Structure formats: C-alpha cells, structure tokens
C-alpha cells in the first residue's frame, strides 16, 4: 500500500490576524500545537523579509515546541540563510519573494536564482538542514532542482487552482508529469498553494505526491468552525 499523504499546515495567516492590530494574539505558536493535536503532520511558516506575518520570535519558539516537522519557508537571501542556519528547522523551503506581492506568485526561477539557491543549499547542508525548492510544475524545473542536489521539491499548484474548468485536467496532468519526473529522480515531492477543501482531492490523488502544504483555506475555515475542526476537515478532504 502506498504511504498516506501528509498534511502540513501553514500557519502564516494566524500571524496575519495578529499583525493587523499589533497585538500579541492570536499566537501562531498556539495554533501550531492545535494543528498538531488535530492530526497535522507538520507545520509550515514563511518568514518574510518584511516580517508581515510570522516574526523571528515565532520561529524560535516553534523550533522548541513543534513535535512533528517544522518547515521554514524563506527567500534565499544571506539574512534568511543565516537565520535558518542558526534555527535549524527540520526542512527549509526556498521560495521566490517580492515585497509587493500578496502571496508567493510562482515557483523559483532557477535560471535567475541559481547562484543564490546554490549558496543557500550549501550553507544549509553544512548544518544538516535539508532544502526543498518551490517550483512550477514543469519537468524542466524538476530536473534543474535535482541538478542542484536538493532532496525535495514543492510543486506550485496555483495554475491548477486558478484554471478554468476547461484547463483543469491539463493542469493536473502537468502536476502529475512533474511529480512523476521528481519521483523518477528520487525526490520527495510536495505540493501546495491555493489548495482548498473542494479542489484538494484531485491533487492528493496524484501518485507520488506525498505532502501538501495548505494555509489560507484552513485558517479561514478556522475562523468559522475552530482550528481543530478545520484541520480535521482537511484531513478528511485528502482522504485521511
Ligand atoms: N507552499 C508555499 C511554498 C507557499 O509559499 C504557500 C503560501 O505561503 C503555501 C504553500 C500555502 O498556500 P495557501 O496559503 O494558499 O494554502
């Protein structure tokens, strides 16, 4: 039997709510524990250069409290690499970052960002932190990631999520093709971005996708029904 797909909850938007008023609540650290108690297999947090949601304090405490897997998403900048080398999360996911974007808009451009990514992979390798690259679901991007020597990739699901009904199957095929390529190259393949309760099952069903990173939809539902229920509902939606 194939391994059950894992759910990693991205808790950034708990911090977004806190930062909206500059309060100390809601605390993303508490949220992480509640997600784990509800069955999440991992916690993901994006420390942005502008600290618009998660802040250094959150990551430092999460490093001590997370009992599952702590995945730090970050840009491949010298500042963030130094922070991650000191923090030593279980995994670092390198993402492209633009100040003006509302959320991560696409996968890494491994042509343009290659040197920064290589530097980050090397530095994090020295402290035994595995690196994942957030990339578009293309065979070329997967091959380039494998060339860079990383053990993992996360495929950007945004094009699938935003596809018209006519394009949906084609986008799923792209995700499946990129996943197959990754598995063939021995990579651990995750996926995420924009996944929601109604659209997640098709991605969870792609053979070889072993982990989903989901944030906004879960935190948004949590406002209505509570975080425990929102995480359990998502576990149900991915067939767990
Ligand atoms: N994966 C990566 C690499 C991301 O940058 C994000 C958004 O921060 C997510 C997954 C989660 O996306 P969403 O909040 O839309 O579920």
Describe it for me?
By secondary structure, the protein is of the alpha/beta class. The chain has one domain: TIM Barrel. It has 11 helices and 8 strands. It has helices spanning 12-21, 28-37, 56-65, 78-87, 114-126, 139-147, 158-162, 168-184, 200-204, 216-225, 227-237, and strands at 6-10, 42-46, 70-74, 91-94, 131-135, 152-156, 188-192, 209-214. Strands 1-2-3-4-5-6-7-8 form an 8-stranded parallel β-barrel, surrounded by 8 helices. Helix 3 (56-65) links the parallel strand 2 (42-46) and strand 3 (70-74). The longest helix is centred in the last third of the chain and has 17 residues, at 168-184. The model has no long low-confidence stretch (mean pLDDT 96). Residues 10, 12, 46, 73, 93, 95, 103-104, 134, 154, 192-195, 213-217 line the site of pyridoxine-5'-phosphate.
Features:
binds pyridoxine-5'-phosphate, alpha/beta, eight-stranded parallel beta barrel, 8 strands, 240 residues, single chain, 11 helices, TIM Barrel
Tally of strands:
8
> Which ligands accompany this protein?
pyridoxine-5'-phosphate
Can you summarize the main beta sheet? 8 strands, parallel, barrel
Report, as a whole number of angstroms, the end-to-end distance: 14 Å
Number of helix segments? 11
Q: Approximately how much beta-strand content do the residues carry?
A: 15-25%
Helix content: 40-55%
CATH class: Alpha Beta
- Would you identify the CATH architecture? Alpha-Beta Barrel
Number of domains: 1
Counting helices, strands and paired strands, the structural category is alpha/beta
Low-confidence stretches: none
Radius of gyration: 17 Å
CATH topology: TIM Barrel
């Amino acid at each position: 039997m194939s391994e059950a797909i894992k759910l990693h909850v991205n808790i950034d938007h708990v911090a977004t709510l806190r930062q909206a008023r500059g309060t100390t609540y809601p605390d993303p650290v508490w949220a992480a524990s509640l997600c784990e108690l509800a069955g999440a297999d991992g916690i993901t947090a994006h420390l942005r250069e502008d600290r618009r949601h998660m802040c250094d304090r959150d990551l430092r405490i999460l490093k001590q409290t997370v009992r599952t897997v702590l995945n730090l998403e970050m840009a491949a900048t010298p500042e963030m690499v130094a922070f991650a080398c000191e923090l030593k999360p279980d995994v670092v996911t390198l993402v492209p970052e633009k100040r003006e974007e509302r959320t991560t808009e696409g996968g890494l451009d491994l042509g343009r960002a290659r040197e920064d990514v290589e530097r980050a992979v090397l530095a994090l390798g020295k402290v035994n932190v595995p690196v994942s690259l957030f990339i578009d679901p293309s065979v070329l991007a997967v091959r380039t990631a494998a060339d860079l020597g990383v053990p993992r990739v996360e495929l950007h699901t945004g094009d699938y999520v935003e596809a018209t009904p006519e394009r949906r199957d084609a986008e799923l095929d792209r995700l499946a093709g990129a996943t197959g390529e990754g598995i063939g190259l021995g990579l651990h393949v995750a996926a995420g971005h924009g996944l929601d309760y109604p659209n997640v099952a098709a991605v969870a069903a792609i053979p070889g996708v072993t982990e989903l990173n989901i944030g906004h939809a879960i935190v948004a539902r949590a406002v209505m029904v509570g975080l425990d229920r929102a995480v359990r509902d998502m576990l149900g939606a991915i067939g767990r």
